[in-house]
Amino acid sequence: MSCECTKCGACCVAPDIAMLDKPLGLVCPHLGPDNLCTVYEQRPATCRNYQADELCAAIDAPTLEERVQKYLAHFGVTEEAEQIRASGITSLTEWRRRRWAVAAAKKA
Ligand code: SF4
Ligand code: SF4
């Protein structure tokens, strides 16, 4: 179901976005301090195609960080987002490479 976007900014922080090499839970470098996109006319297709839905209402909260945490919890990726933030890694590609290396080391 399509809903109205409140321009809360959560979908520019919580999800990973491959086209931007952005990992889970990190603020998109194009998000402005007003939670609006600073490259709106040039934003990638992933962002253009993103539709507001019931989740937007479900994650409503006073602060951006609270909305992001609700979003992450909804998809069960809170722990991974915390690991990413703690690692200091800002590239989705690099994060995936790290996870594959860890998984491969466990199998060996
Ligand atoms: S999470 Fe939903 S309401 Fe918030 S900016 Fe994204 S689409 Fe809009
Ligand atoms: S490019 Fe713009 S719309 Fe896309 S995640 Fe970044 S700030 Fe949000």
- Let me know the number of strands: 0
What profile does the largest beta sheet have? none
Number of helical stretches of at least 4 residues: 5
Distinct ligands: iron/sulfur cluster
Please give the share of residues in helix: 40-55%
Label the structural class. mainly alpha
- The structural domain count equals 1
- Helix-strand string: HHHHH
* Envelope shape: globular
Separation of the first and last Cα atoms: 46 Å
Overall average residue pLDDT: 96
Rg over alpha carbons:
15 Å
Unreliable spans are: none
Strand proportion, as a percent range, falls in: under 5%
List the helices and strands and how they pair.
Elements: H1 45-49, H2 54-58, H3 64-74, H4 78-87, H5 92-107
Bound molecules: iron/sulfur cluster (2 copies).
One iron/sulfur cluster (SF4) binds next to loops.
